[in-house]
Amino acid sequence: MHQFVLQRGKSAELRLFPHISELGIKKNGAIQLNTFLSTATEDIRLYYILDGKFGWRINHQPYVLYPGDVALVLPGVPFGSDNGVLDIGSFTWLHISMQKLENGHLLPGKWSGLSESEGAAIGKILLLNYSPVLCRFNEAGKILKCIHAELSGHEIGYQTRVNHQLDELLIQTTRHMTMQSNPGRDFPKTFMHLEEALRRDLSYQWTVEEMAALVGLGTTLFTERVKSYSGFSPINYLINIRISEAIKLLKRPDISVTDIALDTGFYSSQHFSTTFKKLTGYRPSEFRKNHLYNK
Amino acid sequence: MECIITIELGTNGVRVFAFDLSGHVLHSMKGHYPTFHTDPDHSEQDPEQIFITTLYVVKNLLNQYIYPKKYKVACICFSAAMHSLLAVDKNGNPLGNAITWADNRAKKEAQELRRSALGSSLYAATGTPIHPMSPLLKIAWLRNQDNERFKQTSKFLSIKSYIIHQLTGKYLIDYSIASATGLLNIHTVAWEADALQYAGITAAKLPELAPIFTTAGKLKMAYQQSLGLPADVKILIGSSDGCLATLGDGVKGEGKATITIEDSGAVRVMGPTVLKDEQMRFFNYLLTDDCYVSGGPTNNGGNIFDWFAKQFGDFTQPFDITHSIQQLLDEAAQVPAGSDGLLFLPYLLGERAPIWNANARGAYFGINIKHERKHFIRATIEGILYEIYSIGKSLGEQRTIKSLSVNGSFGTTPFCTQIIADMFNKPVHLRREFHSVSFGAWLLSATEMGLYRSLDEAARIVELPDMYEPDQQRHAMYADYFNIFEKLSTKLFDEFEAIGNLQQQYAATNLLPHNSPL
């Protein structure tokens, strides 16, 4: 195993891959100080442990990583080790630049073969299910090795294959992370996490695919499980939360009906009004008149 | 054709049933609503979400299954979980979330009151054990810890009272729910002055008391329209889930007791007198002003076996706990009754009846080198049921119990029902469809509508066709093991407290992520 570092702007190998800002392999034979200082960047950074044992701090929390583990560092998250100590062992890493939207959501760039909705879903799930250490994630090691090989081999089709592998890495990382936070045993608990995620971002136009991916299930099985647990289809359950939240807001005098509609995820105040009236018999404005909190 | 709708406002969600006038289920639907734990001791629900979920489910049921068959809704009857508390302002708008029975925030208040002379006299007067579940203590907590909300409160409601108020504009609380607040004198059926004083409120802060047959006002026009209901549909206030499950199993009369085991559990009897108990182990709630539902509740029922399945069961498909539990039950059946002497104390959630010890914790006892995985499975189930038996045994000191009925998803598992029959050494009856609470609400409605002359007459029509007979040999063995189980349940009192304290103490320092054993 050869040590190397490729960096955007410096290494010719990356000329066709402007979205890769760095990749490399390091083999550390003796403990070193002041070499692995904490930094925060705009990239997604992945560190895969090949051997040894590393004590790192991610987002201010200490973690110990063993061979097969991956440290996943999202944009803006500080990562490094105390006093810049680098333990003995070896690891390989990759930094990818993502597109960051105004609402904070992440998207892979144009290089990606992921569909727009799947790319958006992956970006969202990485943020929502974020856990910085992915344990026993050997697939990541294989993918990184393959990317190294393609970059040094330059065989026909390598540009496509590298980008394929990057997509593969994003998909596997998302799945692994979801698996780790939802091991598929405790549906009530998983459902509660889902509900919290929906409430945190109620104005977002959630799709069933995104909700399903968030708990690590395919849409068919997800819809079935949600229906049998909650009595509602996923979308109807979401509407249920939206109207319950809207009712609370309607009772406060300081926010307009249109704002309430948009804040709780309805397309328009018309859409809100129709849905609300169908269920409660009141138009939102009528309901508000009858139920205002005293100022 | 007329039909009756029953609405059960439960702990995890609402269940709505439609019955015809002969008591046959036309259809049922459910809707889940969440419980929020913003603090480990807190357990809250959003009253607006409960209301919207209820509307949603009722509307879907009516439109999809009842109206297409040309049924007309004659009556809607409510049941609800006990002990919830919701503070509302003078316009009836919620001040924060509803606090559920499982909320423990008032534990300090409860501990102090339970030890005092006032506690004993309040227990005797109100029939509600002195416990954080009781709205009496929750109100006291609000006064002490959230005085702003306490002062703003115009009414202290139950969840059911809030839903009824939304639908009809009336503030009412039925006898059954009221008798579980710790504020009602169950002998005089009036708010108890000493309890009001302890809570720091006047009766004006509580909804109006109403017998379970009360028509709770007229359904508001808006809901008549959205639900497609006639203006004269009767809204019956109904009763509590515990009382109605007992009625629904026909446990009115001598010699009968009913066991409910869902997530949590209870053993209940019904009769014209209360159970008196110096140790304050039993509750006495009102069905009507001359009929008490008495018994003991446990925290540790089917939820404990769910816990076991989630930790140790096999999951071939994600989240398929039904399959996982079935496999565990099959394995448990390979072990003889008594689990070859492996005992399990099921107190993972602390315990209410009969030991009333919030510090109690779980334990496996008597493990020897021959015990296998399957023994642990069976011992876990037997431990949950020994606890049920323990409540039943203490009830048996005051009431003669000749036969039992069982309801609730865990208790009605054939494997469990047989063990219950063997432990109690009594025949156990159950119905094939598991809806005792809603059937109780149907009996109540049918009686109110004049189909039966009295609840007694209504209860007599209850038929529980399935029966499990006890086995003498197994009973003798369970009785031997139970002696040890019973001793262990109190013997470890000091150690329960010590381990509970350590768990709490170190929980605060062990917040580091799982893979950082630095």
From TrEMBL, chain A:
Q: Does the keyword Transcription apply?
A: yes
Q: Which Gene3D superfamilies match?
A: Homeodomain-like
Question: What Pfam families does this protein's entry cite?
Answer: HTH_18 (PF12833)
Q: Does the keyword DNA-binding apply?
A: yes
Q: Name one GO molecular function term.
A: sequence-specific DNA binding
Highest taxon in the source lineage: Bacteria
Q: Which UniProt keywords apply?
A: DNA-binding, Transcription, Transcription regulation
- Put simply, this protein is called AraC-type DNA-binding protein
In what residue span(s) does the HTH araC/xylS-type domain sit? 192-290
- Give the species this sequence originates from: Chitinophaga rupis
Upper taxonomic lineage: Bacteria, Pseudomonadati, Bacteroidota, Chitinophagia, Chitinophagales
Automatic annotation (TrEMBL), chain B:
Annotated SUPFAM superfamilies: Actin-like ATPase domain
Give start and end of each Carbohydrate kinase FGGY N-terminal domain: 4-248
Biological processes, Gene Ontology terms: carbohydrate metabolic process
Coiled-coil regions listed = none
The UniProt transmembrane annotation reads none
Which GO molecular function, any one, fits this protein according to its record?
kinase activity
One Pfam short name: FGGY_N
- UniProt entry keywords in alphabetical sequence: Kinase, Transferase
Which parts of the sequence belong to the Carbohydrate kinase FGGY C-terminal domain? 264-447
Stated family: Belongs to the FGGY kinase family.
Q: What is this protein called?
A: Gluconate kinase, FGGY family
Q: What is the lineage of its organism?
A: Bacteria, Pseudomonadati, Bacteroidota, Chitinophagia, Chitinophagales
